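[Automated response] Your request has been received and processed.

Submitted sequence:
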Amino acid sequence: METNKNNEIDIKAMEKKRIAEIKSLSYLERLERMMAIIEVSYMLRTATRTQCKK
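Generated structure:
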């Protein structure tokens, strides 16, 4: 249970850090990051799926 609380605290701290980082970016930098995420999402969606043979 103790480890779970520590992980939750770490996650919340990381989230606060990310939010502060995003807020410090300019509008153009935020837009560039969003476009990169959209591009990756599109590539993953349209990529041909390969099957793993085990």
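Summary generated for your ticket: The radius of gyration is 18 Å. The CA atoms of residues 34 and 52 lie 31 Å apart.
If you did not submit this request, please reply to this message.
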